[in-house]
Amino acid sequence: MIQLAWLVPLLPLLGFTIIGLAGRKLSKGLIGLIGSGTVLGAFLISLCIFFSLHEQTHTVQVFDWFAAGKLHVNFSFTIDPLSSLFLLIITGIGFLIHVYSTGYMHDDDGFHRFFAYLNLFVFFMLLLVMGSSYLLMFVGWEGVGLCSYLLIGFWFKNTSYNNAAKKAFIMNRVGDLGFLLGMLLIFVTFGSLDYSTVFSAAHDSAGSNKGVFEIIALLLFIGAMGKSAQLPLYTWLPDAMAGPTPVSALIHAATMVTAGIYMIARSSVIYVNAEIASEVVAVVGIATALFAATIGLFQNDIKKVLAYSTVSQLGLMFLGLGVGSYTGAVFHVTTHAFFKALLFLCAGSVIHAMSGEQDIRKMGGLKKFLPITHLTFLLGTLAISGLPPFSGFFSKDEILAHAYEHNKVLWMLGILVSMMTAFYMFRLYFLTFWGGFRGTQEQHHHLHESPKSMTIPLLILAALSVVGGGLGIPGEHHWLEHFLHPAFAYTQTFVHHITPDFTHELILMAIAVAGALAAIYVAWSIYVKNKMIPVDREEDMLKGQRVVYNKYYVDELYDAVIRKPLDVLSDLGYRFFELRGVDAIVNGFGTGVKWMGSGLRLLQNGNVGFYIFAMVISIILILLVNFI
Questions:
Q1: pTM here?
Q2: Are residues 301 and 403 in the same domain?
Q3: 613 lies in a domain?
């Protein structure tokens, strides 16, 4: 079955091709069947691969891609525990989002285009995690960037949505330059871009070329900062909410933003030899987690709260990678895929019931109108808040435990992030589902639970959010750690963690849970007991609150420091270089040719005597030239 792994990305690509070429002629039911069915087929094959892997690493050769000088690249796939786990996340969560989309997007005129883009998105993400070289990873990397642009700006008649799509595309190009430079340095250093060759050489040369390892690791991290929305390249992700809600779920849970985590986890042998770069990863991660969490405290758009939550949770994953908890980071990617996909799809169900309204200040009391959405949203909120026995508790606790052994300050900041996460998520939950309804009469009349095509994926994801923590129960029987051991085998030589004893670990867990419960109690006191509703006008906010509500004016800062100066330079270049330079030269040639033509045409006057005279003069000149 492993040798048929090439079918996994081929099926979504086939779905994209069929829907893209014939979508206008197909019924919506058939489009949904093809789009969802191809991803389901990929998931079933991935499941067979997962169970037949036996914790080994396999290379599936598809064809020779190209050779240029010393660079020889095969189009081949690496199938190991790490890639097989991501295959299940991408295709499993992706399938549920496809099914959900058949209901959510049913009345949209671009239904066929939407499913074509979704299939293409899944294809490129599968290519990214399955590729056996950095170059093939880069192809998938750029592909998901393209698909994010297409899907964020899906409703392209809205200018602000187009701007959000362009912002995501351009900001990711900044990170991609770092990734590209990192690949060039990898090839110069190791003579190859193939994982097996690079990682073996990196392991053998450990201890030497420390500076090169550091530079490679930092360049790769720049790429990860863009794709996985870390400081300072994070501002595109909240704006990506412009796309349809299933797109938000796909980007945040199963595809694009997890690419940076995967890339660093895959390159773990490089990072364990780059201590400074790993420390940078940890510091940037916790800084991003804390920064985004503070912004989430005051957001009132249901999708924006979840977006900043994603940025914050990604920061915790990078904290795990930076302190050497590669299994913990991948574990949190897995559990986060469950509850974040669930939360976004629940948000879509709420928006669907509220006739497009996304402001939580205009909601309230929805639990009696949307019982399934309410229950599943609550379970997802409990999971992301890190309460036992939900999945987020186990994965977050593992990262925090490693952070505690690495640096106590990082651990304390991680606890603070967890408390803020619990607060703003329950703030979102209470304002949306508790209290009285604050919307319009028309919205109240329209309130109803979503169709089964939308609620069934919610129930499945809710179940995974509850039991998913079983993949990594602390102790000697940590299944995921044993499963991923071959993928991180090179790191075992260099990483020696002092794991806390059971009593110590229980104390750390108790502190994290107590902090989360305290935050939840504060949220309940403010928004349920005291029935406080966030103010509508910025003028009524406290000054500090206004700064955080406006996201610390980072977008405005980028606009003033980067965009406007570039606009000025562009305008100067246009007026002086383009118009007075390039255009003047080109137009000058045209004017000269026109002037010469207007002069030479006077020679064609029809006078035979003049023609004979000109011919004689020409002959005399030719003879003189030959004589001289």
A1: 0.92
A2: yes
A3: yes
The answer to which of 227-236, 297-306, 419-428, 469-478 has the lowest mean pLDDT is: 469-478
Q: How far is residue 341 from each of residues 303, 332, 459, measured CA to CA in Å?
A: 12, 13, 12
Same-domain check for residues 515 and 563: no
More confident residue, 495 or 287: 287
Q: Cα separations (Å) of 384 from 88, 251, 499?
A: 21, 17, 24
d(CA 588, CA 292): 55
User: How far apart are alpha carbons 171 and 236 in whole angstroms?
Assistant: 7
Same-domain check for residues 529 and 559? no
Q: Do 578 and 455 belong together in one domain?
A: no
Q: Which residue has the tokens 């250093």?
A: 189
> What is the number of domains present in the chain?
2
Closest CA to 18 of 29, 37, 31: 31
Residue 209 lies inside a defined structural domain of this protein: no
Q: Whole-angstrom Cα distance, residue 326 to residue 481? A: 9
* Residue from 256, 237, 15, 281 nearest 141 by CA: 256
Enter the tokens of residue 553. Answer: 């004016």
508 lies in the same domain as 621: no
DSSP for 467-478? Answer: HGGGGG-SSTT-
267 inside domain: no
Query: Dihedral sign, CA of 397, 403, 409, 414?
Result: negative
Q: Which helix (H) or strand (E) holds 201?
A: helix 195-204
What pLDDT, on a 0 to 100 scale, did the predictor assign at position 500?
59
Q: How far is CA 178 from the centre of its chain?
A: 16
* Cβ proximity of 302 and 351 under 8 Å: yes
Angle between helix 391-406 and helix 452-467 axes, rounded to 10 deg: 40
Domain of 375, in residue numbers: 283-466+497-534
> In terms of domains, do 455 and 580 share one?
no
Q: How far apart are CA 452 and CA 459, in angstroms?
A: 10
The residues, any chain, with a CB within 8 Å of residue 419's CB and separated by 6 or more, are 515, 516, 518, 519
Neighbours of 418 (CB within 10 A): 28
For the chain, the first-to-last Cα distance in angstroms comes to 86
CA distances from 362 to 302, 308, 378, 424, 535 (A): 11, 20, 19, 17, 11
Examine the domain organization and report whether 567 and 520 are in the same domain. no
Whether the CB-CB separation of 292 and 311 falls below 8 Å is answered with yes
Is residue 342 located within the same domain as residue 407? yes
The reply to whether 153 falls in a domain is no
Among the ranges given (291-305, 372-386, 528-542), the one the predictor scored with the smallest mean pLDDT = 528-542
> Tell me: the pLDDT tens digits for 202-227?
988 877 788 999 999 999 999 999 99
What is the model's pLDDT at position 383? 97
Distance, in Å, from the CA atom of 458 to the CA atom of 436, rounded to the nearest integer, reads 24
